C-alpha cells in the first residue's frame, strides 16, 4: 500500500532519521485490533503447537513494531540540537509521534493484562511440554511478557 511508502523514494542521500521515525504507521485502532485478534487466536483450544509457534512469532513481531522510536529520557533541547535549531516543527512532530506511541503502549498493556494469565499458562506449557522447536519461541514470549 503506497500510504506507507516514503514519498521521496528510498534514496540514502535524502532520507534522514527523522524521516524514518515519521513514516506512516498503522493507526492505533488497527494495531489494537491486530493484538486482540492475535491473542484470541493463540488462546483457541483447537490451536496446534505448530500454529501457536507461528502465532508467537507474529506476537513478537507485533511487540517489535510497537516499540517506542524515541527514548523518553532524551530532553527536547537535545533533540533540537541534534536536528538543528531551525527544526522546531520536526521536534514537535517527533513529540506527537512519541505521544501516539505512548498511548498505543498503554492500550497494548491494558489489552495484554486482560489475557495475561491465560497466555502465560499456555506459553509455560509450551515451554515445558512443547517440541524442541516450540520451546525456544515460547520461552521468548514468556520473557517478553515478563
Structure description:
It is found in: Nucleus. Keywords: Nucleus, Transport. Belongs to the NUP186/NUP192/NUP205 family. Its main location: nucleus. One of its GO terms (cellular component) is nuclear pore. This protein has one domain (27-145). Helix content is 68%, strand content 0%. The radius of gyration is 19 Å and the shape is elongated. The protein contains six helices and no strands. The mean pLDDT is 79. The protein is mainly alpha-helical and 146 residues long. The chain has helices at 17-21, 28-42, 49-65, 76-83, 88-129, 134-145.
Largest sheet: none
Q: Looking at the structure, what is the overall shape? A: elongated
Question: What structural class do helix, strand and pairing data support?
Answer: mainly alpha
Rg over C-alpha atoms, rounded to the nearest angstrom: 19 Å
Strand content: under 5%
What is the count of structural domains?
A: 1
- Per DSSP E runs of 2 or more residues, the count of β-strands stands at 0
Query: What would the average pLDDT be, to the nearest integer?
Result: 79
SS element count, helices: 6
Question: What is the straight-line distance between the termini?
Answer: 34 Å
Helix content: 55-70%
User: How would you spell out the order of helices and strands?
Assistant: HHHHHH
Amino acid at each position: 500500500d503506497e500510504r506507507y511508502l516514503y514519498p521521496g523514494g528510498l534514496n540514502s542521500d535524502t532520507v534522514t532519521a527523522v524521516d524514518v521515525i515519521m513514516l506512516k504507521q498503522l493507526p492505533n485502532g488497527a494495531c489494537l485490533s491486530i493484538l486482540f485478534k492475535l491473542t484470541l487466536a493463540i488462546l483457541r483450544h483447537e490451536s496446534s503447537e505448530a500454529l501457536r509457534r507461528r502465532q508467537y512469532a507474529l506476537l513478537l513481531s507485533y511487540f517489535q513494531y510497537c516499540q517506542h522510536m524515541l527514548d523518553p529520557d532524551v530532553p527536547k533541547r537535545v533533540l533540537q540540537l541534534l536536528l538543528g535549531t531551525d527544526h522546531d516543527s520536526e521536534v514537535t512532530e517527533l513529540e506527537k509521534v512519541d505521544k501516539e506511541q505512548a498511548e498505543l503502549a498503554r492500550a497494548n498493556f491494558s489489552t495484554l493484562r486482560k489475557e495475561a494469565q491465560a497466555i502465560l499458562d499456555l506459553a509455560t506449557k509450551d515451554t515445558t511440554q512443547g517440541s524442541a522447536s516450540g520451546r525456544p519461541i515460547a520461552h521468548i514470549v514468556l520473557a517478553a511478557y515478563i
